[in-house]
Amino acid sequence: MPVPFRSKLNARKLKQGRPTRWPDFIRDDSVRATPHSRALAQRWIPERGFVLIPNPALSEPEDLLHRNRQLDLIDRNTRLFRDGKPANHALLWGARGTGKSAMVRAMLKRYGGPDLGMIEIAHSSLSELADLMQILSRVDRRYMLFIDDLSFDAHDARYKGLKALLDGSLLSSTHNVVVYATSNRRHLLPESMADNLNGRIVDGELHEGDAIDEKISLSERFGLWLAFHPFTQEQYLDIVSAHLAQAGSSASDTNWHEEALRFARLRGSRSGRVAMQFVQYWQSLNV
Fold it and tell me: Average pLDDT, whole number, for the chain?
């Protein structure tokens, strides 16, 4: 049977699970040319196929503090998608460590099951995205396609393939796939002052240059934008307190407040990731 995508391997090598450029620690029986029909999470590697993720790192939706609006919006979008109703591709953008990836994993925790799974795709595999869409269009299951930390360099042409597939390609939109991407950039592409030089005023209105239009056009193909701004000091301390309580430490002890703020200042960020790192540091002091 021919391989249903443009692979660098022939069908025999793919069936044997012995690629030439990937490590052998992944079991042969975890590699498939079509998705695992009931797997909660899997990774798609163009040279290999679909690789099972046995124990995906999931997040509890209730643990995402101070992100109620974003959680409500993506929860509704995911629920509609699972139920076969119209749903949007989503771009979760904002400061690092503020819960973007955790929120996507929380949707898998809440809605993942026999009818809905997640496929993770690396940034380096986006050039083969059209092949993946063709495979999934033949599958009777819904998938959230997860692209983490999405961004492109100024001369990276792979963004054009993603832009076309989200909206604008001759390929029909795959009804059973929704794209959830996270990024630190709202427009996914680097912007410079030179991009604004082609802007002009016409009848009193500002018309942006072609370079700006091109860079904005990719993010505009995501129908749902969710912004993740840095936490305030109070929110950061609240998150630290919650992590301390989950770790079994006494969150009522206020001695950690000053140390937690110093920890955040040294890292230049009051993020959820830094809060968790502080809790691990604080616990290590009492070992």
Answer: 79
